[in-house]
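tool=predict chain=A
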Amino acid sequence: MGYPESWIREAVETATGRPAHPMAAPESAALPYVIFGRTATEREYSLGGTKTYPLGTFSLEIYGLGYATVKQLADQVRVALHQFNRAGPGVTISSSILSDERDGEPIFFDGQAIGTYLVEQTYKIRWEE
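tool=predict ok
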């Protein structure tokens, strides 16, 4: 059985050319990068049904040096994930909708002249189990 997380990782890395990390990035990770994870899952069951189509809520955090860079990466992620509805790697996605997008607070590390900027995206993804 496939999971939407494998599709998310591949789609993000293909679209951006940057790494996508589940739940957290290693300290050694070079910017820019994406962090993703599932924050909720709703399952509907039917009598006699052999397949289920869960609806998951997924959070993506896109980090990059400079505001323009992170906005460009966020657009690439949105194009790759929003309104996708076909087979991905090992999983069939029946719908993927961007439900929320917002700018996060920039982070200024010691000695950093350009901030590390963040765009947060939330997707509602339904897949076949």
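Residues 6 and 89 are 7 Å apart (CA to CA). The two ends are 7 Å apart (CA to CA).
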